[in-house]
């Protein structure tokens, strides 16, 4: 679905943002793209949807170079940017004017999403609150029913019930045919939503891993004191939060926040452990 090899990109030649970046995203998954502020998440998504152009390397979507912005590709991908601007028309008018760009648009699904999000369907979009506008656009994005759906910080501006609703709707929208990518710096928002975690740090992808596999390989615990065998440890008010190798126990919950902190901090033992037995391209650690 998305194939990136050796991507080089920078807004200026002097300060490259990505160097030798590799990433493969497949159908049938919900990916969470994590990175610190300024790591380049939005920029990577823009490269994927053809709104920013690589300085070098390959960035293909649906088998075509993203930068070509071929009509057939654009009809099968939807990008929801972080900042949204809605026109001063009713939701119905917006759908009438825009849905035609997406051949698989599902009007019944849109009605369902808007009702679940409690977005007033008859209102003029600019008269809605920012959160309501965002929920309208999320509903529209899901209903567009494209093979690739890319959402940049979709949970920004959503209240707590809406975040839960968002997770539920995303889960129901996933099919074997679709690939959903969500970027965020709010790691907790992705818990119990994504199946694969992608971490962008230091100009490249440092992790692209299935959460189920991570749960089989790692355990996350809070203990009175960290030990030498721990792969990563972080002090907290309740003791030490540690990541350990899972030596044959049942896979538990992956603490995404702790894992993220470890990967963007100093965790050479964890890095070395995770890079064992991995394919040549990814996960890259
Ligand atoms: N149009 C632009 N021109 C020049 N520099 C840019 C432009 N857009 C982004 N940048 C810079 O590129 C870097 C990455 O920005 P980007 O918005 O991709 O990061 P991000 O990971 O999405 O951050 P955040 O979590 O804060 O949204 C930042 O240093 C930013 O200042």
Please outline the major beta sheet: 6 strands, mixed
Helix/strand/pairing class, anyone? alpha/beta
Number of strands: 13
> Helicity range of the residues?
25-40%
In a nutshell, what does this entry contain?
One of its GO terms (molecular function) is ATP binding. With 285 residues, the protein is of the alpha/beta class.
3D architecture notes:
By secondary structure, this protein is α/β, with parallel strands linked by helices. It folds into two domains: 2-202, Rossmann fold (3-Layer(aba) Sandwich); 210-275, no CATH class. The protein has helices at 41-49, 71-74, 91-98, 107-116, 130-143, 160-173, 211-217, 256-264, 268-275, and strands at 2-9, 18-25, 29-34, 56-61, 64-65, 77-80, 148-152, 179-184, 196-201, 204-210, 218-223, 232-236, 239-245. The strands form three sheets. The protein has a six-stranded mixed beta sheet with strand order 6-7-8-3-9-10, sandwiched between helices. Strands 2-1-4-5 form a four-stranded antiparallel beta sheet, covered by helices on one side. The protein has a three-stranded antiparallel beta sheet with strand order 11-13-12. Bound molecules: adenosine-5'-triphosphate. InterPro entries: AAA+_ATPase, ABC_transporter-like_ATP-bd, ABC_Transporter_VariousFunc, P-loop_NTPase. It holds the Pfam family ABC_tran. Residues 2-227 form the ABC transporter domain.
């Amino acid at each position: 679905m998305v194939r990136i090899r050796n991507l080089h990109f920078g807004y200026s030649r002097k300060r490259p943002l990505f160097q030798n970046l590799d990433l493969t995203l497949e159908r049938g998954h919900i990916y969470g793209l994590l990175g610190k502020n300024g790591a380049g998440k939005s920029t990577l998504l823009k490269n994927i949807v053809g709104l920013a152009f690589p300085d070098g390397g390959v960035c293909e979507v649906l088998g075509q170079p993203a930068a070509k912005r071929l009509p057939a590709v654009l009809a099968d991908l939807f990008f929801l940017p972080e900042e949204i601007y809605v026109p001063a028309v009713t939701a119905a008018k917006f759908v009438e004017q825009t849905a035609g760009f997406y051949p698989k648009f599902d009007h019944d699904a849109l009605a369902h999403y808007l009702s679940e999000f409690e977005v007033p369907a008859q209102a003029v979009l600019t008269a809605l609150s920012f959160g309501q506008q965002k929920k309208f656009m999320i509903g529209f994005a899901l209903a567009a029913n494209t093979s690739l759906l890319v959402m940049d910080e979709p949970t920004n501006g959503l209240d707590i019930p809406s975040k839960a609703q968002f997770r539920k709707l995303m889960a129901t929208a996933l099919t074997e045919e679709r690939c959903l990518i969500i970027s965020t710096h709010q790691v907790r928002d992705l818990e119990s939503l994504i199946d694969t975690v992608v971490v962008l740090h230091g100009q490249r992808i440092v992790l692209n891993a299935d959460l189920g596999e991570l749960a089989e390989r790692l355990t996350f615990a809070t203990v009175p004191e960290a030990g030498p065998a721990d792969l990563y440890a972080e002090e907290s008010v309740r003791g030490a939060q540690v990541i350990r190798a899972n030596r044959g126990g049942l896979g538990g919950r992956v603490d995404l926040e702790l894992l993220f902190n470890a990967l963007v901090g100093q965790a050479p033992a964890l890095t070395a452990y995770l890079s064992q037995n991995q394919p040549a391209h990814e996960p890259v650690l």
